[in-house]
Amino acid sequence: MNIKTKLTLAIGILVAMIVLLVMLSVVNLQILTATEPNSPAADLGLQRALLWISIVGVACICTGVGIWVRLPASISNPIKEITGGIQEIANHNYEKRLDLGNNQEFIEVSKNFNRMAKRLADYHASTLSDMKAAKKYMETIINSLNEPIIGLNNELEILFINDEALSVLNLKRTEIIQKSAEEIALRNDLLRRLIRELVSHPGETATESKEKAREKKEPLKIYADNKESFFQVKYMGITQPGKNGVTLEKQGYVIMLRNITEFKELDSAKTSFISTISHELKTPVSAILMSLQLLEDKRIGALNGEQEDLADSIKENSERLLSIIGELLNMTQVESGKLQLKPKITKPIELIEYAIKANRVQAEKFNIQIEVEYPEDKIGKLFVDSEKVAWVLTNLLSNAIRYSSENGRVIIGARQTDTGTVEMYVQDFGKGIDPRYHKSIFDHYFRVPGTKVQGSGLGLSISRDFMEAHNGSLTVDSELGKGSTFIMRFNS
Ligand code: ADP
Predict the structure, then answer these.
(1) What confidence tens digit (pLDDT) does each residue in 330-384 have?
(2) 399 CA distance to ligand 1 centroid (A)?
(3) Domain shared by 156 and 138, yes or no
(4) What is the domain-level CATH number for residue 320?
(5) 442 CA closest ligand 1 atom index
(6) 460 lines ligand 1 (CB under 6 A)
């Protein structure tokens, strides 16, 4: 029965009963007025009419109370049930179904509700299984990678990790998945080293930051399966469009380890090959220079003009060869980790004088004027391997001369900053270096494209390595067409 019928029926019954009550009252009134009030017949009729009025009156009250109690409940109860059902759906209980009795309107509502709940349940089941399938697919891909890979959220909890990473870290999947990497790192050195980069400590000193940067650059050495392996660590931030769909929000990190053991082995084979060859070449080239010196000795016999030119050319080329051999040997020393510093107290001016002396002939050849800038006040002494630092300064001065135009001028100097750092610099007014190459010029064998002056592309990279070995730095400040300044910094 629908609500409308219910209401009509209830009101109809009530009205009919009231009509009946009124009719009986009228009959009663007629009896009272039409007959002799004191006659026995009138008394009986009155009695009967009163009884019927009472019965109909009580029935009227009962029906009224019944309607008053039942009618609102019969409307509000299904509404309550529908509200409860909606709440269940909102709480993701898609199995909830409604049964609202035989109320026609509510039957329709409950049918629609149940259809909706079923569809939601089906959709949920299908998306859940889709998600599960996608997760499985991703896990298979990650596991099939030969390189170790670890995924972390912003709180550094491990979200995923492949078998390679588990084997390198010597951990079990169940021990670490969804667990805090920082906690696991307390008992796993390797993981600690890996996540160190991601953990920022507020009180971190500059030295600690530098140490981190150095570690990041150097490959990770791992002993596993009784052999040494080298890995290059790559950190990637995972971002996703935020709630507004525009800005990217950080979701976590992925740590990838690339096994570079093979390259490392090849590289060290190359380094030892270059080292051996350079050593082998050094002796004959030195012998050529010695013989040349004897040949130029007038006591043995004078050379004619042409022979002198030839001897000069042989000398120049042999000296270049010797300097390249020297550079290669320096490079192999750095690469093989065999660089040993022999520091001693050195005055910066001594290094400057050495570099000028070593470059005098070249400077005279191109008519380059070398100017020295040195503070009159006291400048701090350095505790460095003077041979290596002198080599760097000589190389920078040689570059400044070689890359300047003839008749140019070059400045070599030293200064002390307010923080006490000693800086040595070489400035030229040559063609300068395009900013695009300011980083690459410090790479092995790199030469700015189009450079005509002969060279090996090794000097600056070795110079930077030597400076870093001293915990110092080498930087460039250069503008095309205006010249370059190379600055060596010795941190105090
Ligand atoms: P090399 O000079 O033997 O080529 P370097 O490592 O010393 O090797 O220098 C790398 C490159 O940087 C050079 O080839 C040159 O192109 C550029 N360069 C270095 N110093 C200067 C300078 N003072 N002015 C202009 N270019 C320079």
Answers:
(1) 989 888 888 889 999 999 999 999 999 999 999 999 999 999 999 988 888 999 9
(2) 6
(3) no
(4) 1.10.287
(5) 6
(6) yes
